[in-house]
Amino acid sequence: MDPMKILCLLTAVMFLFAAPCPAGDLLSVSGRLDLLGSVALEGDSIKEDPSFTGRVKLDLAPSKWRFHSWLEGGWDGTVKGPVRDHSLLKSWDEVYQSNTPFLEFKELYVGYPAGALELRAGIQRYAWGRLDEYPINDLLNPWDYTRFLRKSLEDRKIGVPSLSASLNQGDWDFDAVWAPILVPYRLPLPDERWFGASALAAFARIPNAEIIPDEPDLPPRTLENSTVALRARHAGDLEWALNLFHGYDPRPVFKTTALTITPEAGKVLINPGFVPDFHKITVLGLDAATVMDAWSLRAELAYTFGRRFNIRQELWGYPVQPAPGNFPLNPIGHKSDALDYGVGTDYRLFEDCILTLQAQQTLILTRPDTLYERKFETLLWANLKKGWMNQKIETNLNIVYNPEHGDGMAKVNAWYVFTDFWKGGITAVFFTGPPQSLFGRFSGNDQVEVELRYSW
Amino acid sequence: MNSKPVSGDRPARLGPLHPVRIAGLVFLLLVLSPMTSHAMSGREVYEKVHELRSRALDRKTEATMVLFDKRGGKRNRTLTEYSKKAAQEAYKVLVVFRSPADLKDVGFLIHARTFAERDLWAYFPEYKRIRRIPSTSQDDSFFGSDFSYDDFGGPPNLDDYKFDILKEEIIDGRPCYKVEVIPKVRRKYSKYIAWVAKDLWVTQKIDYYQDDTIYRAGEFTDIRIIDGIPTPFRLHVENRKTGHRTELTIEGIEYNTRFPDELFTQRSLERGGK
Hints:
The complex is a heterodimer. Chain A has one domain (3-455): Porin (Beta Barrel). Chain A is 5% helix and 50% strand. Chain A has helices spanning 3-17, 153-156, 201-204, and strands at residues 27-40, 51-60, 66-75, 102-114, 117-124, 160-169, 172-179, 209-211, 227-234, 239-248, 254-256, 258-264, 267-271, 274-276, 280-292, 295-310, 325-328, 333-350, 353-364, 376-388, 393-402, 407-417, 422-432, 447-455. Chain A starts with a helix and ends with a strand. Chain B has one domain (42-270): outer membrane lipoprotein receptor (LolB), chain A (Clam). The relative contact order of chain B is 0.16. Chain B contains four helices and 13 strands. Chain B has helices at residues 19-32, 34-37, 42-55, 266-270, and strands at residues 59-68, 74-87, 90-99, 107-112, 118-124, 129-133, 161-171, 174-183, 191-197, 203-210, 213-226, 229-239, 245-255. The longest helix of chain B is centred in the N-terminal third of the chain and has 14 residues, at 19-32. Chain A binds chain B through residues 26, 30-32, 59, 61, 66, 115-116, 118, 125, 127, 130, 132, 152-154, 166, 168, 170, 173, 235, 237, 239, 289-296, 346, 348, 351-352, 387, 389-392, 417, 419-421, 423, 455-456, and chain B through 67, 69, 73, 75-76, 99-102, 104, 119, 126-129, 131-137, 139-141, 143-146, 188, 242, 244, 261-262, 265-267, 274.
């Protein structure tokens, strides 16, 4: 039986048992509206229109059953017009979902707590691991990369239909998750702002060029292609967790087909010849946290069996002079085990001022020289957060740096709380580095953003 | 002119060892000596306060907090506090914000293994992350208010402080001990002076000092007896340096609750106490 059908059946059964109980109902509704505008600091970079989005969270607890939904939607200014995808609801089948206006259930599940055990079925987001921004063991949810890291970590996560169980036994917590289907990550289209620099830059400069990447064929939805994750956590002076993940790697990796350039009706249609490729990995991970004097410390470690990487773009086999035709490309994948590890800390400099530092590294165990990534790839993060006037104003200075390639990102922002409902923020973000690097590919995307938020 | 006093016109001067003079000196010593003018010591007063706070550890509190800046701007918070006595000197506290929207389900968890040793965690739903908070932050502002994290904890370890009764005063019509409390470990404040109601063993007023200056002051009024426990229903704290103040009003309180241990876990913190 199709695992997705099994999950839907289980969810429906749980809904049927969650009979409304008017006398004991507990209903909570909250939401938020965001108006976001950005001004590109590089005159010739792809522009982004203002975005207007909203979210509504609903929590209903008739008797012991709990129902939770988190619906988001609105107008996404990163989608380049005219809109090519007219579906309203985000789907679980496609990588390139360039649709606006849009709706998406980030979370939609029913839960049943029975003392120490809690079961949940439906669309869920998980937060495993301890590190910020790029937690190593946080693999259950793919990301929406359509605004790169401009969305917070939790906002980047795409909810996955899944069944989860959580058992508490004193200082121990045990978690199990089964996600029956692969939900792919989402990428921007090549002509959208957050696609970044790539080997396609040369093709984008062709007059009337329209670059249309292929959607990948997703793995068949069978039980063998589902994802399973287990976690055991222990609370104490040193809190730690052991994680096991077996499923599809949520991080983007590609395979090549063929570059095709076809003139048609006044346009030049270009299929860039690469598609997202999905591979199963097994990850054994560990994370821990403790406090020591004024320091709050955390660490993560993960060994990945069978991770995939792509070789440098200049080796993919793109023709030097693009011309109409079909051009087979070189194989670009490389398989290697990898070890990821990182440490992070928060240090209270003085009241309402926290310095967060984080260092993480990926070790590619069998690394050929064709890879762009070095054998060790390091990310160094620092964030200085300060509250002013009893947290009426919050400022953040965030810097991340990759020493192997000399690329990085700097972000400074300030939020002002006008009232209990309204707040406004301004952010400036800057990128630097070589074109294939993680941050350098966005070095043309320096921008200032202004955001107005209404919450209820 | 005759310079000497004449008997019958003026009282005779008392000798240095005159009984009246001696009695007067003893009387003055008794009045002026703080140590001998009270039946209790400062430590004993705080043991009574401590005993009352320990009795009040099993409770659920619903409260509203209003933050006022010096220009009169207001921000409102509502929160629920769950507290449980875990053992003779151990307790657990869970505080969850219910409003405003951007603080909803933000939570704070304390596990005190003893009154001297505490673990603190904060949960931020926006990040879905629980963070350990070092105890060095205990005197910091509690989520932007003029209360501190420590104010939401349970009874302190009395051995960490020195107590001295300064005098007795009437506050809100109640006789109070005015007690100077000096921490033996480094804290944000160099000392505080508390006015403890003699009949109720509840703090009615408190001034926190940094060196010789009051930087934070609190008043606790509308004291009601709930299940035999004197409880101030209005708590007002002001930061004298910034002019910011916070009013906390208890909307509802239940004592002798019997919460399960599962309510005070990190999982419960993530779920907002539900």
